[in-house]
Amino acid sequence: MLSRVRGWFRRTPPSFDPTWEAVLRSGFDHWNLLDDAELERMRMLVARFFHGRRWEAAQGMDLTDEVKVLISAQASMLLLGLELDEYLDVSSVIVHKSTMRVKKQRPTGGGVWSGGTQHISGQAHHRGPVMLSWSAAQRGARVPERGMNVVYHEFAHRLDMMDGVTDGTPPLGDEAAQARWQQVFTEAFARVHDGESILRNYAGTNPAEFFAVATELFFNRPFDVFTHERDLYEELRSFYGQDPANRLVRAGIHPDA
Question: Which InterPro entries does the entry mention (predicted)?
Answer without folding.
Answer: MetalloPept_cat_dom_sf (IPR024079), MtfA_fam (IPR010384), MtfA_N (IPR042252)
